[in-house]
Design a protein that fits this description.
Its cofactor is Cu cation. With 568 residues, the protein is mainly β. It contains four helices and 35 strands. It binds 2-acetamido-2-deoxy-beta-D-glucopyranose (12 copies) and copper (II) ion. One 2-acetamido-2-deoxy-beta-D-glucopyranose binds next to loops.
């Protein structure tokens, strides 16, 4: 379980599992993660699945801003695995970032590896998850980052805090599910349900199961740290009878938003303040998908209960009114309200002038069937694929970071990912399917250290247009603009918010629309960039940003750790 090594001498207050404990503060923490197959029963279905320390969701990592956590991951499972610390920038230390065959090779069964997770300016909520095939479905947990000792939240201290994890539940084995789908190039079956802190709740046909319950006292304010760890769907979330206040996203503070619902993409986190000021009773908490495409998806609703202490059981528990599944307008209305806090205490630094613009089309494609006999599982007997700038990413078998760091001349990747697609067309037009065939390759984008980068993600109408939550490792970035249709070099930048844009690590690129992000390339390393819908990542909607070393020792990639897993 969790072991904390006390290094600091100062005294501080640590928040652990719902209790405030007095403990010696430290800026180094040690955790032990044992990965193994454990049986869980949900939706009346029992199955063995990979978990950390036999917990689902897995253990929470607790740190303060600027701390370091050493996490020893021991693999007692059947397959190789890696862990990613989602949203943790890991300055100069891509070695501990995790994506399989990008920054490391998998930790093989029976082996272990200690990740050094280096926190810098993140404050709020992040999460960790497996980054090998689809194992993140069950291998995931929270990261809670408190302010530094002596600092407070930019809002009144909540009475208590609670973590809320949204996840997907599959009645089948997720590795078999994706392996089978990949074999024939078909769309994997959607999940069988969603869970809140591991439990699907009241709306599924399995009434004898537990439902997650959050106890609150009348008059008190609570901080809910919400993670969307769902595999393939963006989610609406709400609490019956209550408005709440969103105060942070992806471990950065935002201007408070009072709302009755949120829309959160896979990969994102949101910190929510809830004041228990309604008639003491029980209220449903619910999450259901926002999904605006013809692709198959899980259209179920997961629930939990907000329960006032000392309340008499109501005859019927009120249910929140969430926007309907395809309600794009409600999704956009919420998203467009998010602005950085940008206060004196929490300033932001948006690049005003950019030195490098990268324009990236984001598409779901098809490849001709490559099976010797039989037809593939995609449309028209083709193989489903996905791409960035029309290049469908093929994962190498030796990690890119080791090859790059050793300056090998003969690498299994290229550095010629283009700054715009080879062919320009009406990306969101009706004829986009003419461009359905992608190139397949392992291409990374080289970026100079210190460059002021703008990336424009342009969704296309190729195949099945969909909203794509794009995630960049090693960085957070400012979302300076977004709209439907094609990005226009002359007019679109005029619509940008360069004053208080939200700073995130994952952003939903609207269906048949575009999103522009900005950041300064001040973290040297090999950083994966991909759609956080797992189906799309599996089909190749990925690339790698290689940020070159800077001029000084502290702007260079660190040396590799001694026990880095070697490639099979
Ligand atoms: C785990 O579940 C599987 C599938 O139901 C079953 O075959 C197996 O016996 C279970 N193992 C344990 C230890 O309960
Ligand atoms: C972890 O791996 C190291 C080698 O990298 C080995 O020396 C050590 O015994 C392993 N620890 C466990 C608990 O397996
Ligand atoms: C995967 O395919 C195998 C072989 O056809 C089948 O036995 C198994 O049930 C499939 N698993 C899933 C999760 O679809
Ligand atoms: C829950 O109920 C279902 C029938 O509704 C039954 O098949 C299952 O075994 C029960 N599970 C437990 C854990 O009691
Ligand atoms: C929530 O906010 C809406 C819109 O401002 C308002 O109409 C509603 O009364 C509020 N509900 C509660 C419980 O405060
Ligand atoms: C999703 O489910 C809801 C409620 O069951 C239903 O009204 C809606 O039509 C479904 N949406 C889609 C796109 O299937
Ligand atoms: C709940 O009820 C108990 C027993 O009646 C009482 O001691 C306690 O103060 C009550 N708590 C609240 C929050 O009202
Ligand atoms: C979205 O916001 C606009 C402007 O505030 C409002 O007119 C519209 O009703 C909202 N739409 C939905 C679906 O809430
Ligand atoms: C950005 O460019 C403008 C015009 O070229 C210049 O006036 C301004 O000083 C630049 N700002 C920064 C922060 O470099
Ligand atoms: C493919 O064809 C070969 C030879 O015709 C046959 O032996 C094999 O079983 C076939 N495989 C499938 C999956 O149908
Ligand atoms: C990573 O490389 C190993 C060989 O080192 C290979 O077995 C594995 O399939 C690769 N993983 C992916 C996701 O391609
Ligand atoms: C790569 O090639 C250069 C010049 O051709 C040579 O100096 C260098 O040693 C080579 N690097 C490796 C790792 O073999
Ligand atoms: Cu996607």
């Amino acid at each position: 379980m969790e072991v904390k090594k006390m290094l600091g001498l100062l005294l501080g207050i640590f928040f652990l599992d719902g209790l405030f404990l007095l403990s010696a503060a430290s800026n180094v923490h040690h955790y032990s993660f044992i990965l193994k197959e454990t049986n869980f029963t949900r939706l009346c279905f029992e199955k063995p699945m990979l978990t950390v320390n036999e917990q689902f969701p897995g253990p929470t990592i607790h740190v303060r801003k600027g701390d370091t956590a050493f996490v020893n991951v021991h693999n007692d499972g059947k397959y190789g695995i890696t862990i990613h610390w989602h949203g943790v920038k890991q300055p100069n230390n891509p070695w501990s970032d995790g994506p399989e065959n990008i920054t490391q090779c998998p930790i093989q069964p029976g082996k272990n590896f200690t990740y050094e997770v280096i926190f810098s300016d993140e404050e709020g909520t992040l999460w960790w998850h497996a980054h090998s095939d689809w194992s993140r479905a069950t291998v995931h947990g929270h990261i809670v980052i408190l302010p530094e000792i002596g600092k407070t939240y930019p809002f009144p201290e909540p009475y208590a805090e609670q973590t809320i994890f949204l996840a997907s539940w599959f009645n089948t084995d997720v590795k078999e599910l994706i392996d089978n789908a990949t074999l024939i190039g078909g769309d994997p079956d959607p999940s069988d349900g969603f869970t809140i802190n591991g439990w699907p709740g009241a709306l599924y046909n399995c009434s004898n199961e537990t439902i997650s319950t959050f106890g609150v006292e009348y008059g008190k304010t609570y901080l809910f740290r919400l993670v969307n760890g769902v595999m393939n769907e963006e989610m609406f979330f709400g609490i019956a009878g209550h408005n709440f206040t969103v105060v942070a996203q992806d471990a950065a503070y935002i201007k408070p938003i009072v709302t009755s619902y949120i829309m959160i993409t896979p990969g994102q986190t949101m910190d929510i303040l809830l004041t228990a000021d309604q008639s003491p009773s029980s209220y449903y908490i619910a999450a259901s998908p926002f999904f605006d495409s013809n692709a198959p998806f899980d259209n179920t609703t997961t629930t939990a209960i907000l329960q006032y202490t000392n309340a008499t059981a109501p005859s019927s528990i009120p249910f929140p009114s969430l926007p309907s599944t395809t309600d794009k307008e409600s999704a956009d209305n919420f998203t467009s309200k998010i602005k950085a806090l940008a206060s004196e205490e929490h300033p932001i630094s948006v690049p005003q002038n950019i030195t490098k613009r990268i324009f990236i089309t984001v598409s779901v494609n098809q490849l001709p069937c490559d099976l010797v006999n039989g037809t593939c599982g995609g449309p028209n007997g083709n193989r489903l694929a996905a791409s960035l700038n029309n290049i469908s990413f093929s994962t190498p078998t030796t990690d890119i970071l080791q090859q790059y760091y050793s300056m090998l001349n003969d690498t299994s990747f290229d550095t010629d990912f283009p700054s715009q697609p080879a062919v320009l067309f009406n990306f969101t037009g009706d004829d986009a399917d003419d461009y359905i065939l992608p190139e397949v390759g392992t291409k990374a984008k080289l970026v100079e250290y210190g460059a002021s980068v703008e990336i424009v993600y342009q969704g296309t109408n190729i195949g099945n247009a969909e909203n794509h939550p794009m995630h960049l490792h090693g960085y957070s970035f400012y979302v300076v603009g977004s709209a439907y249709g094609n990005w226009n070099e002359t007019t679109s930048p005029d619509t940008y918010n360069l004053i208080d844009p939200p700073e995130v690590n994952t952003i939903g690129v609207p269906k048949n629309g575009w999103t522009s992000i900005r950041f300064v390339a001040n973290n040297p390393g090999v950083w994966f960039m991909h759609c956080h819908l797992e189906r799309h990542a599996s089909w190749g909607m990925n690339t790698v940003l290689i940020v070159k070393n800077g001029p000084t020792n502290d702007t260079k990639i660190r040396r590799p750790p001694a026990n880095l897993p070697i490639c099979a």
